[in-house]
Design goal:
The complex is a heterodimer. Chain A is an alpha+beta fold. Chain A is built from five helices and five strands. Helices cover 36% and strands 27% of the residues of chain A. In chain A, strand 4 (121-127) and strand 5 (131-139) form a beta hairpin. In chain B, helix 4 crosses helix 6 and helix 15 crosses helix 16.
């Protein structure tokens, strides 16, 4: 289906002062578009987690919100470092967050599992040295 | 600008408004525009927080509340003072001094809203024990916070605890007890809330979750303060008087409610921008380990209301000192359980989301508008100066796609355009000469 709306948010590595701004804007825009209820709730959780993951773990990247007639899509891409063991990373409670992130209360190891749980479709591709791409789709009620 | 007129206590005094942009940038829901040299309040977005009343140097933003004369429409009238009223009188030893003063200025009876808070405390505590409650439950006591949730966080509506505000419960009890004692018709009794804020006035005129308020009006603390002051010298002597507990009185300050309702796992937030930040966290499911959330639109809680007289920190201190010497019995035992069955505690209507922020009812059309908004934003300078009359460049772009203004209302774009036109004129003149 045709992409009707798209907006990209650059997310800088370790920029804790702006962390959460992209997901706040995403929620705001979806409400303006009339997306509500359960879908909004799940996008809220997933977009915040994915944005924070970019801040905490990546060397910088981008979060893209796209809206289709039948779905909301979030795609996060980064420029590295890539995840060496994906199955380990998807495990609840497993985290590689550094001291700085942990001192701010992050690093519970729930980010990726939370994204997977909240999205209707979840895909993660990662290559060490290249980067990670996470694609999440949320079906809109018809 | 909107289909249906909604009642609001917060209004504009046209003659005083200079058309400056102070209120514009301070409105938490972007509900103000300056058009034609004066401010306009968008009544589908206004949540009656009163921030504009506080910020306006020209006192052009006002709160409409009842005056004492309005109580004369009833054969009997009962004053229901918010506990924050006690904080207005420095060194006040006991609430009974204020209650007596209220009778002296013309009320037939008084009933403490703090006692309503006691009853509500017990009702909420029972509610929290029910299984499968969303976490955290959010207090329904501050009408501005409830309206904020309706506008900005509609998917959190089911977190709002389905128990009426203390003033509503207090009014039900006050009217029933008065009618029983004096053998009179409930319709002859007017119940007037003594309010620290315009939001409560709006909540009485257009209740959220209730068909009709139990109250008949609200009188501003600011208006009554001067009248009460000379009478704060004697205590109420009434053998039937049931005083509120210290817990109920402390509801007037931030954390008072949270401490009474759920001392071991609650969070109290005050100040509307702080409340917004915490609600974002609830929305992101980052506070689901919390049982209860108390949100106060005003800094310091109700003692910081826009219609209070005393400095909110001093008022808080007065309340805390007074509470220290009051009954420390918890509402769990001070309030008989029969109270909870005898009077209406729950809302009789669902709380509806406010869809005023939606760009269009048709999602495809809404997306078209949002794409246009983004194109416009890219052309705007991004100063958020407010000269166009909208609070930010982004809201200006939104106003354009909604059809309320045009791009040339931006002074910066207009200047650019004039510059180009002037250059074209010069070119044209020169080419003619050649």
């Amino acid at each position: 289906m045709e992409e009707l709306f798209r907006i990209a948010y650059p997310v800088a590595s370790a920029d804790y002062t702006s962390a959460g701004q992209a997901s706040t804007d995403i929620k705001r825009r979806l409400k303006q578009l009339g997306v509500g209820g359960d879908v909004l709730r799940r996008v809220a959780v997933a977009s915040y987690e994915v944005e924070l993951n970019l801040v905490i773990h990546s060397l910088g990247g981008e979060l893209v919100l796209s809206v289709f007639p039948d779905a909301v899509q979030l795609v996060s891409t980064d420029v590295g470092p890539g995840i060496p063991d994906l199955s380990m990373a998807m495990r609840e409670g497993y985290s590689t967050a550094n001291e700085e992130a942990r001192s701010l209360g992050f690093g519970a190891g729930m980010g990726l599992p939370n994204m997977k749980r909240n999205a209707d479709e979840f895909d993660i591709q990662s290559q060490v040295g290249t980067g990670t791409t996470i694609t999440m789709r949320f079906k809109l009620p018809t | 600008m909107q289909e249906k007129k909604r009642y609001h206590s917060v209004r504009l005094d046209k003659d005083r408004c200079k058309g400056c942009t102070n209120c514009l940038t301070h409105c938490p829901t972007a509900a103000i525009r300056v058009r034609g040299g004066r401010a306009h309040i968008l009544d589908n977005l206004c949540i009656d927080c009163g921030e504009c009343i506080r910020i306006c140097d020209y006192h052009a933003k006002v709160a409409f509340t009842d005056v004492m004369a309005n109580t004369k429409a009833y054969k009997y009238c009962i004053a229901l003072p918010a506990p924050s009223l006690y904080g207005q009188f420095r060194g006040l030893a006991r609430p009974e001094y204020v209650l007596e003063a209220l009778k002296r200025v013309g009320f037939d009876d008084v009933f403490e809203v703090a006692r309503g808070a006691d009853i509500v405390t017990r009702a909420i505590r029972e509610k929290l024990r029910e299984p499968n409650q969303p976490k955290p439950m959010i207090s329904s006591a501050c009408p501005t916070v409830v309206r904020l949730i309706q506008v900005r966080f509609p998917e959190l509506i089911d977190h709002i605890v389905n128990i009426r505000q203390p003033m509503e419960v207090a009014a039900s009890v006050a009217r029933a007890e008065f009618c029983k004692k004096h053998q009179c018709d409930p319709a002859d009794v007017g119940c007037f809330f003594i309010t620290p804020c315009p939001a409560k006035m709006t909540a009485i005129r257009t209740p959220i979750g209730q068909k009709k308020s139990e109250l008949d009006g609200a009188i501003s603390m600011m208006e009554l303060y001067g009248q009460l002051l000379p009478h704060i010298n004697e205590m109420l002597r009434d053998p039937d008087f049931v005083p509120a507990t210290g817990y109920g009185v402390a509801w007037s300050t931030a954390n008072g409610e949270a401490n009474a309702v759920c001392p071991d796992n609650s969070l109290s937030v005050d100040g509307i921008s702080n409340v917004i930040r915490v609600l974002e966290e609830v929305e992101n499911d980052k506070l689901s380990d919390l049982t209860y959330l108390e949100g106060n639109a005003c800094m310091g809680g109700c003692v910081g209301g826009p219609l209070t007289f005393e400095n909110s920190y001093v008022a808080k201190n007065t309340i805390h000192k007074m509470v220290h010497h009051m009954s420390s019995e918890h509402p769990d035992t001070a309030v008989p359980s029969s109270m909870l069955n005898k009077y209406p505690m729950k809302n009789d209507l669902p709380i509806e989301p406010n869809t005023a922020e939606k760009l269009d009812d048709n999602m495809v059309e809404a997306m078209r508008k949002m794409n246009r908004m983004n194109e416009i934003i890219a052309r705007l300078p991004g100063y958020d100066c407010g000269s166009c009359g909208s609070p930010t460049c982004a809201s200006f772009a939104e106003d354009i796609v909604r059809g309320y203004c045009t791009e040339m209302d931006c002074v910066h774009l207009l200047r650019e355009k004039l510059k180009v036109m002037a250059e074209e004129m010069v070119e044209l003149a020169q080419s003619r000469r050649e």
